[in-house]
Write a structure and sequence with these properties.
94 residues, alpha+beta, Nucleotidyltransferase, domain 5, 2 domains, two-stranded parallel sheet, globular, RNase_H-like, RNase H type-1 domain-containing protein, nucleic acid binding, RNase_H-like_dom_plant, RNaseH_sf
């Protein structure tokens, strides 16, 4: 889980103030103990909750539509080898 990896990094680097933005409302609710955590995610959620007890973490939700550019860029990175450059972002989002 990407949030756990990021929080582990913050813990190692002694970063004490973190803003996490995610399009997964379910993950936010699990971290806040508002949703039941499935058995296969329990250990990860426990570690996340343990880390956020010791550092200041703000977790915010945004809609997937707001993440369209980031999703497209990640997909481009996975499917292309080498350097790719765009002159404008509207060409990326199509």
């Amino acid at each position: 889980m990407a949030i756990l990896i990021a929080l582990r990094y913050c813990k190692i680097k002694k970063i004490n103030k973190v803003l996490i933005e995610t399009d997964s409302l379910g993950v936010i609710k699990m971290i806040r103990n508002e949703w039941k955590i499935s058995w296969n995610q329990a250990k990860e959620m426990e570690e996340i909750q343990e880390i956020i007890e010791n550092i200041q973490v703000d977790i915010t939700h945004f809609f997937r539509e707001a993440n369209q550019l980031a999703d497209k860029l990640v997909n481009e990175a996975y499917t292309h080898i080498g350097l790719k450059q765009w002159g404008e972002f509207s060409a990326v989002i199509r």
